[in-house]
Amino acid sequence: MYEKTRAEIAGLPESFHREAIKKLLAEAKKEIPKGKIFCNTRDIPAAKAVIAENPEFAGFAVSGPAEIDGGILIEGEAGALQIDYSYRTFLAKVWESGLKDASDILFG
Predict the structure, then answer these.
(1) What is the CATH number that goes with domain 2-107?
(2) Domain ranges within the chain, ordered by starting residue
């Protein structure tokens, strides 16, 4: 089920990934105001477009591709701070909490 979910998310249209990048970057900007963005190869054009179309993201630049299903990785200017907003990280959190809930229901 986990792998199927990952595949379905990866198969969503470009507009979904583009909007996700915009929202994730807005959230990351609260902690890292300037830096590098890493995303998968498919999403590089979308990330570049988000930066170009939104002046509030002018302090960011798209760097090389990352081995992630989707989402973004952000690295601060000096490389001291990194944030992982990849889809896999979010899915892992949901998966773990869901397993705990199921375990509590089944095994009390």
Answers:
(1) 3.30.2320.30
(2) 2-107
Amino acid identity at 13: P
Q: Note the pLDDT tens digit of each residue in 23-71.
A: 999 999 999 999 999 999 999 999 999 999 999 999 999 998 999 989 9
**24-44 as b/e, with b when 16 or more CB fall inside 10 Å?**
bbeebbeebeebbbbbbeebb
CA-to-CA distance for 36 and 107, rounded, in angstroms? Answer: 45
Report yes or no on whether pTM surpasses 0.85: no
Give the closest residue to 27 by CA, choosing from 68, 53, 60: 60
